[in-house]
Q: What sequence folds into this?
């Protein structure tokens, strides 16, 4: 498990420091103890943990040790054993050290014990020592990671959801981006608890803060199933898949192109098809001729659209509402006339009786993104979309698309 490997690395580094520190206090020990301990320290620095542990045991075998000598030996044994993945030996040495130290160091030793017990899957003892570390004032990053690890292995998903949600909320209130690990733990707990709406909301936060392909796939697969989502925006979801690089199937390219043609955007359809050809998902196999027919149709209709767009805009200007102006304004954007298209969309939005104002704001924001010089304005426009039919979801997602 990744978290446990992280804890192992952090604990080993800290215990190596303990081993080095033990030698800094080794003055005054007898030669028969000091010599093997010095050799153990050198072996640890050379990455030879098992040999170092053997030398520490050699020192421990000397009779008549003083309390100070024993403490130095235990420190070295703990450091070497941890590096050698001999956790029982590390635990025994650390438990011998803990009663002999106080203050900050006691909290650090308790942290090492918690991490070592976690390695042996003894979560009860790991939790016990973690709590002792916290009681001693230790609130290190390792302790916080260990808390989350122990929660995740406990099966107490209500507690995981509660603590992760608190961490996410604290980050947001402080104006910081929530930690990816906190969002992942929260999403996993919500999913396991059957909290579907909360899970989808957390997936969206993951995507908006960390726009990785895995999160795009997970969220886009869910958003179309949200209550009230209109099939009218299926093309928009495919546009987002194209923009995020998550279309990987021939049928998805074909569906996107066909929907773009049906919507009256043949230039967009032609670009989708060309991308499919470039990615070797169109133009090959048994359906290659079908792909070519769709390509030819898109090219033909694109030519007709360029010839007729001016008259379509003029006709839309005579209408009582601006919805057709918004549509043909966005058609201009797809034809490469972005600035002119933005103006026509805004002209439509200014007309009374607009039937789909949120869709109009969505199209304006998408057009502004494509202008290449108005991203801030685009984000502002997209954040103003409030529709419950899917438009607001799509608008938020466009703000996560990398320019």
A:
């Amino acid at each position: 498990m990744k978290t446990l490997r992280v804890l192992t690395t952090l604990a080993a580094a800290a215990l190596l420091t303990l081993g080095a520190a033990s030698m800094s206090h080794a003055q005054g020990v007898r030669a028969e103890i000091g010599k093997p301990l010095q050799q153990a320290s050198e072996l640890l620095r050379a990455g030879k943990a098992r040999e170092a542990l053997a030398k520490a045991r050699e020192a421990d075998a000397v009779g008549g040790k003083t309390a100070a000598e024993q403490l130095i030996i235990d420190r070295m044994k703990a450091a070497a054993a941890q590096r050698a993945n001999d956790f029982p030996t590390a635990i025994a040495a650390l438990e011998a050290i803990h009663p002999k130290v106080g203050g900050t160091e006691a909290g650090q030793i308790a942290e090492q014990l918690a991490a070592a017990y976690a390695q042996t899957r003894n979560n009860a003892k790991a939790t016990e020592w973690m709590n002792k570390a916290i009681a001693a004032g230790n609130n290190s990053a390792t302790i916080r990671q260990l808390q989350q690890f122990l929660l995740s292995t406990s099966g107490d998903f209500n507690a995981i959801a509660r603590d992760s949600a608190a961490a996410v909320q604290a980050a947001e209130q402080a104006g910081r981006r929530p930690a990816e690990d906190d969002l992942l733990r929260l999403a996993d707990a919500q999913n396991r608890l059957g909290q579907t709406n909360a899970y989808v909301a957390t997936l969206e936060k993951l995507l908006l803060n960390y726009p990785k392909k895995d999160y795009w796939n997970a969220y886009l697969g869910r958003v179309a199933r949200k209550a009230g989502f209109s099939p009218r925006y299926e093309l928009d979801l495919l546009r987002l898949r194209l923009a995020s690089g998550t279309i990987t199937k021939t049928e998805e390219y074909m569906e996107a192109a066909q929907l773009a043609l049906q919507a009256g955007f043949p230039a967009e359809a032609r670009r989708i098809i060309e991308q499919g050809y470039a990615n070797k998902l169109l133009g090959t196999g048994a359906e290659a001729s079908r792909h070519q027919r769709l390509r030819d149709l898109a090219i033909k209709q694109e030519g007709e659209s360029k010839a007729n767009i001016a008259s379509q805009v003029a006709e839309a200007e005579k209408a009582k509402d601006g919805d057709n102006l918004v549509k043909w304004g966005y058609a201009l954007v797809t034809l490469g006339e972005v600035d002119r298209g933005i103006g026509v969309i805004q002209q439509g939005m200014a007309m009374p009786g607009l039937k789909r104002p949120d869709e109009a704001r969505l199209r304006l924001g998408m057009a502004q993104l494509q202008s290449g010089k108005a991203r801030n304005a685009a984000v502002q426009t997209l954040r103003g979309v409030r529709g419950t039919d899917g438009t607001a979801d799509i608008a938020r997602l466009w703000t996560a698309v990398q320019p």
Notes: Residues 158-210 form one domain.
